[in-house]
Amino acid sequence: MKTNKVAIIGAGVNGLYLAWKLAQAGNNVVVFEKRNKIGKEACSGLFSQKILEFIPESEKLVENKIKSVLINFPKKRLKVSFKNDFLVIDHSKLDNLTAELAQKSGAKIILNQEHLKKEDLLADFNRVIGCDGANSMVRGWFNSSKQQFFLGIQGFEKKENNLDYVEVWPTDNGFIWKIPKGKQTEWGIMEDPKKAKLLLDNFIEKNNLSLTDIRASLIPKKFFIPKNKLITICGDAAGLIKPWSGGGVIWGLIAADLILKNFPCFLSYQKKAKRFFLPKIIFSKTMVRFVYFFGFNLPWLIPKNNSIKDDFLF
Q1: CB 68 within 8 A of CB 165
Q2: Contact yes or no for 29/52 (Cβ under 8 A)
Q3: CB count, 10 Å around CB of 73?
Q4: Model pTM greater than 0.85?
Q5: CB neighbours of 175 closer than 8 A, spacing ≥ 6?
Q6: Is 226 helix (H, G, I), strand (E, B) or coil?
Q7: For residues 113 and 36, is the Cβ–Cβ distance under 8 A?
Q8: In 3D, which of 225, 232, 227 has the Cα closest to residue 277?
């Protein structure tokens, strides 16, 4: 692989993973992060075991193992079993672990870098990769159709919980969740930004919950990767989230591997990522609408027990 100067915008797990692997391959890599520290805080940190394939060292961060999810529709509870356990991992710790791996491989990480210009970056670097989250600055450079968002809100109940299943309560356009995290229990919601807080507040009051450390973040809805030779995007910046859960780490890492396999050809990455993800996104969104319609209106037509392998419905 020819050595390139690569700028990565955003020190989330996708950007740091790319920095790690590109630096390992001998490239000159600089990660620019707008915040003053590394570590995503508003994230549930529920990953399939594929995370161990990408970052084997993350096994030491596992806080709990999840075997299934219970979906609580008003008139029926469904159980979806995972063929392989999902892992509860603190997302901030995962980011910092990946940052250490990137730095040990020679990548440089610069914090407090909020105001970056495309022209300046292209003057100094051969390639630019945007991994700068749902409200991506890099995505905005291409005047793509305006991104649409869910709002994710999470809070914590200081109650030890080592159960091996997650619970969710479907809402109009999303769901409320409960995740056992060992030393505490996480509650949260993914919904339309105009509805999320009110729905969660009503749920908290109805169930007499007392939550602390409440956080929020945007979750992108629309998939997009620019057709550009020098600049590309990955992870949440590209809208790579699972339509049924809002989780994006594994999908983002799969896209990161596509970048690595095709590097430095971003046009090839864009083509292969669209070919890989678009059918899965369309099918997944269709299945979510199907389950929600029948769950709310004709719940007796849905099997009570179901299963899923990991990060894809097919």
Answers
A1: yes
A2: no
A3: 18
A4: yes
A5: 168, 169, 189, 190, 191
A6: coil
A7: no
A8: 225
